[in-house]
Amino acid sequence: xxxxxxxxxxxxxxxxxxxxxxxxxxxxxxxxxxxxxxxxxxxxxxxxxxxxxxxxxxxxxxxxxxxxxxxxxxxxxxxxxxxxxxxxxxxxxxxxxxxxxxxxxxxxxxxxxxxxxxxxxxxxxxxxx
Length: 129
Ligand code: FES
Known about the structure:
By secondary structure, the protein is α+β, with helices and mostly antiparallel strands. The chain has a single domain (6-126), classed as Sufe protein. Chain: A (Alpha-Beta Complex). It has five helices and three strands. It has helices at residues 6-13, 61-74, 79-82, 87-93, 102-128; strands at residues 26-31, 38-46, 49-58. A three-stranded antiparallel sheet has the order 1-2-3. Helix 4 packs across helix 5. The longest helix is centred in the C-terminal third of the chain and has 27 residues, at 102-128. The chain starts with 5 loop residues before the first helix and ends with a helix. 32% of the residues are buried. The site of FE2/S2 (inorganic) cluster has 11 residues, from helix 2 and helix 5.
């Protein structure tokens, strides 16, 4: 059996939504201290919906595939759904990852949650003024 599913290979070789959103409403950045990989997520949010999302991942193939899949899963979705996205859902959507690569999908979950935190703290600041 191949180590990586066809979906993982497809998203690794042809990642969706790669790049930067210059005027993003939220940015999340996380890293894994052990492997040194870094993932950055940019969100454009309108009326509590993820209108656009882009990512930059300086990391392994599984991290790139996980970020690509995660962006596809949250694009066009309400924040109430986005906040519940788990690495398990991302892994399942990729038809699985090898056990020692599960932490790569955790980065995608954490990057999105970090972006949401950034979004809510910007909202608080905007309303606090
Ligand atoms: Fe660290 Fe994949 S090896 S994110």
